Amino acid sequence: MSTDLVPLAFLMFAVTYPSRAIGLLNPAIDRLPRRALEYLQLVGPAVLAALAAVNVMVATVDGRSVFVVGLPWVSVVACIAIVRWRRSLFLGLIVAVGIAVAGRALGLP
Amino acid sequence: MSLIAFGGAAQFAAVGYVASGLAWPAIGLLTFLLNARHVLYSAALAPWFRGRSVAERALAAHLVTDESFALAIAHFRRLGRFDAIGYWYPAIVTTLIPWNVATFAGVALGDAIVEPSRFGIDVIFPAAMAGLAVGLVSGRRELVAALAGAAIGVAVSLVISPTIGIIAGGVLGPIVGLAVHASGAAPDVQGADLPNLQDVNP
Fold this sequence. Notes:
Largest sheet of chain A: 2 strands, antiparallel
Oligomer: heterodimer
Helix content of chain A: 55-70%
Distance between the termini of chain B: 34 Å
Helix content of chain B: 55-70%
Structural class of chain B: mainly alpha
Strand content of chain A: 5-15%
Radius of gyration of chain B: 18 Å
Shape of chain A: extended
Order of helices and strands of chain B: HHHHHHHHH
Radius of gyration of chain A: 20 Å
Largest sheet of chain B: none
Order of helices and strands of chain A: HHHEEHH
Distance between the termini of chain A: 35 Å
Number of helices of chain B: 9
Number of strands of chain A: 2
Strand order of the largest sheet of chain A: 1-2
Shape of chain B: globular
Number of strands of chain B: 0
Strand content of chain B: under 5%
């Protein structure tokens, strides 16, 4: 097993840790106004939804971002419905993967 | 890398950067941009960590990921206060350890999986992120913030880049959510999810 990329791992730590620590280690966060705290409470749903949507709706082709429609949409919507209905992320993921596997076996993109 | 950087999407991207022969300083810059959304996670977690030691917060920062953030913040909001096990359990037991075990398994067995998409592996990440977002939606403001974050994220991704799109969705989505709050919608959830400072003992 090669260890050539271990320095790269430390470089990645050096560039990822500050963004994770800046909020948690900044004492000014204690003095934020209520409106700012309300804003921060909405960050989670917004970022996670953006991550999911971009992941299934946007693909990079020849260095260009393009809008895509495909089977992952169905998988993700099914997962959302299951989580909303049954309150179980595990079950939602099982169903999402099952739809993807079945769909691709049928030749869907 | 999974232990030192513990970066999830950043690690996936780095593999692509290395494979394409990108210089390390450029990899560092792109990784920083890709991980910039963690500034938002860290800031959102900070009020719940009020009164905790600097050492604990510094260690907690290393374990902030999409998954640990979503699981911990949902737990804190249910309780209305910080709960140490509610952070360390999802961060270490359900995220750090499985991520590293799976990384090792991937290194050892990855070549045997010729086409991961046939097994639906590619839908796990977006489905998990969407499912975790649903778990955080407790009122109209959160729903609007999530929908706006998704729409803005996709739009900006198509115009600029997916990395910038995700950050734009995360930054601007909550502003749209707050606008709904300001118009008087869903008064029952106003302030209901903020940390109960009386329960956060220094």
